[in-house]
Amino acid sequence: MELAAEQRYWGGLTLALAGAGSETSALYLLGYVAEMLLKTAYFRVVGIASGDDVAPHLRMAHRDARWRGGNLHNLQSWFYLLNDVRFFQGNPWNPVLASSIERHVLTVDAHWRETLRYTPLAATDAELEETLASVDWLLARYDFLWR
């Protein structure tokens, strides 16, 4: 999933730079990158090996008592679950980092839904710029999500 996230990032960036008419496609891919980064960080934190089938682990995460709601694409729930698991493992983020991660996740979440792939609605340049900046931030600090 980490390689897929990187590939989708470059695809999203290419679409973002393509200009008018590509905003929604770019935003969709970039939001998907944020989702994969959060999920893979969670998998690393709970000790799931990179070659393991993640399907059962996804269902377990969704049923976890710390899950905040929504489906398995819910960025906020992935952030809060990851934050809580790190805390209970005795390896919490420092408050400044946690706040920054949360802010960027919430920014992406404000503009992205997995259902964008089904809609002809156009994302605005501002939404795309905000999403790209937050995904760039998360990608550049991916190691901090799970280490």
Quick overview:
The chain is an all-alpha fold.
Characterization of the model:
The protein has 147 residues and is mainly α. It has 7 helices and no strands. Helix 2 (23-45) packs parallel to helix 4, helix 2 (23-45) packs parallel to helix 6 and helix 4 runs antiparallel to helix 5.
SSE topology:
Elements: H1 2-18, H2 23-45, H3 55-63, H4 75-88, H5 95-111, H6 125-140, H7 142-146
Helix pairs in contact: 1-2, 1-6, 2-4, 2-5, 2-6, 4-5, 5-6
Task: Quickly list its features.
147 residues, 0% strand, globular, mainly alpha
Largest sheet: none
Mean pLDDT: 95
What's the tally of helices? Answer: 7
Q: Provide the low-confidence segments as ranges.
A: none
Terminal residue distance: 17 Å
Strand content: under 5%
Number of strands: 0
What does the overall shape look like? globular
Label the structural class. Answer: mainly alpha
How many domain modules? 1
Helix content estimate: 55-70%
Radius of gyration: 15 Å
Order of helices and strands: HHHHHHH
